[in-house]
Specification:
By secondary structure, the protein is α/β, with parallel strands linked by helices. It has 2 domains: 129 residues, Aspartate Aminotransferase, domain 1 (Alpha-Beta Complex), CATH 3.90.1150.10; 241 residues, Type I PLP-dependent aspartate aminotransferase-like (Major domain) (Aspartate Aminotransferase, domain 2). The chain is built from 14 helices and 15 strands. The strands form 4 sheets. A 7-stranded mixed beta sheet has the order 2-10-9-8-5-3-4, with helices on both faces. Strands 11-12-15-14 form a 4-stranded antiparallel beta sheet. β14 and β15 form a beta hairpin. α1 runs antiparallel to α10, α12 crosses α13 and α13 runs antiparallel to α14. It is globular, with a radius of gyration of 21 Å. The protein starts with 7 loop residues before the first strand and ends with a helix. The structure holds pyridoxal-5'-phosphate. The site of pyridoxal-5'-phosphate has 14 residues, from α3.
Amino acid sequence: MSSIQATRMLTPGPTPIPDRVRLAMAAPLLHHRKDAFKTVLAENQTMLKQLFCTESPVIPLACSGTGGMTAAAFNLFQPGERVLVATAGYFGNRWVDIVTQRGLDPVVLRKNAGESFNPEEIRAMLDADPSIRGVFMQISETSTGVLHPVKEVAAITRDRQVLLVADGISAVSISPTPMDEWGIDCLITGSQKGLMLPPGLAFVALSPRAWRRAEEVRPQCYYFDLVQERASCEKNQTHYTSPISLLVGLHEALTMLLEFGMDNVFKKQWALTQMARTGIAAMGMELFVKEEGRYTWGLTSVRMPDNIPATPVVAKAFKDCGVILTAGQGDLKEKVLRLAHMGWIDWADLAAGLHALAWSLPVKPQGAYIEAALDAYHNALGE
Ligand SMILES: *Cc1c(COP(=O)(O)O)cnc(C)c1O
């Protein structure tokens, strides 16, 4: 069925692309070994460091976010080394798979979906086993909408010979992730979530001690060699052919974010989160993550009632309202519905998302949930 309405991607990747970024990417292709492009890369580097809040280089890789995760596991650890993987969902489980493929020896700290970690439990595990060389975790577990206590874990790892590898793919540019201040050793993100770009780029930044480690470890995979990429980065190049249009789009997206100011970007993300949570609760739906301080700022997950599976609701929201929502992942497929609001999304998009959700339930909720949601949005902005 065709319909006269916009399609709104309220999904945790890909996310909508601003016109400024689309137009920048439509310009004639630059040659990746010529000066004009080197200027783009040099300026990207300055802006990426501001985004990551780090003095270290931020390495762009031509791959999806999972490629960045792979690069981290292969460049920082050698087969046989013991690492701690903290998982509470689909993307945490991906860490288990990746480190296993690298031949590492993972000790897995597993929590139920929707739960987070107690940093003291991680401290106790590191105390109990001094052979653990690294900790892998998500900042934001996108499958559940949980925000993990990475700052607190970094405070534990930074004083030990333990590297903290943080998947910030649905956190960087969405909520604060100051890499150097917190003491994260490896921070990863991707292009298609908070960065307002199409999929296809991952970013990896390493702390000085993680770089020293990367210099000792050989990745044993041809493409993801971070030491080689760093050498090219210092010459304002990428080691292999650059994804030129994406890196030009990145330049525009970073310019926009820094023009807004990251504090304002985070404030907007926070306000959207308050808006979504208030609207969902006002509809009589149950929030999947209830604990204050433990929900991510880029998506809000709803626990579906037992008799209402998520996928028909998602399908109807698209068919009738043009809004793309997302069901759960893995075991949570029918039990969780995710309403994402990351990147180039504003209150009006999110109002459309709340309406689409309500409209698509078997019994449409009554009450002024849109109004309550918008009040929460303005209140969160202090308006
Ligand atoms: C999206 C996402 C990924 C995977 O990224 P791809 O770009 O699909 O490879 C990994 N981790 C988290 C937390 C994500 O949100």
